[in-house]
Specification:
The chain is mainly α. 50% of the residues lie in helices and 12% in strands. The chain has 6 helices and 5 strands. Strand 1 and strand 2 form a beta hairpin.
């Protein structure tokens, strides 16, 4: 989806429109030194946005929601009722750091190249560039305040990947 870690952590079930296959990004969840865990508005006013979901993402979210409901039914009074999508086994909200930590553990278990959670955001944007999605649309999807941010971060990468791929193909004999 291209969401930031804090936006993922701040996602509530009510933010997901399963019929229209969208997420409304309305808040972010962060851990601060002074206030601890806080739910706040996203990074900028441009970060408040609607993002489309693939059929696979919808399917995974529905399956995850069922698993959460089973845990809730099993744990009863030990379950912490939270509106958040991403929680631990007791219903406590997962912080962005906890989400990244779980991602790292998953990557270690699978035969994947070491990749940070944030790299998925970059991969998502790069894929959109490759698929010829207009830069303005990519910028809005990522919640960037300026199109130049999207261009600087992702279009340049596209150009580098293109050149790298071309150079490697030219080495084949």
């Amino acid at each position: 989806t291209g969401l930031r870690r804090g936006e993922i952590a701040g996602l509530w079930w009510e933010d997901i429109d399963f019929n229209n296959k969208t997420i409304s990004v309305k808040r972010a969840y962060y851990k601060t030194k002074i206030k601890g865990n806080v739910t706040t508005k996203p990074k900028s006013r441009y970060s408040i946005r609607t993002v489309g979901l693939s059929d696979l993402a919808i399917s995974c979210l529905l399956e995850y929601k069922e698993e959460q409901q089973m845990l809730k039914n099993t744990l009863h009074r030990y379950w912490k009722d939270s509106p958040n999508v991403f929680t631990d086994e007791l219903g406590e909200v997962l912080s962005p750091d906890a989400i990244s930590s779980r991602w790292r553990r998953l990557v270690k278990k699978l035969p994947l190249k070491k990749i940070r959670l944030h790299d998925l955001r970059a991969s998502f944007a790069t894929y959109l560039v490759y698929s010829k999605t207009p830069i303005a649309d990519i910028s809005k999807t990522l919640g960037h305040s300026r199109i130049s941010t999207t261009v600087d971060m992702y279009v340049k990468n596209y150009d580098n990947y293109y050149k790298s791929a071309r150079d490697n193909i030219n080495k084949i004999k």
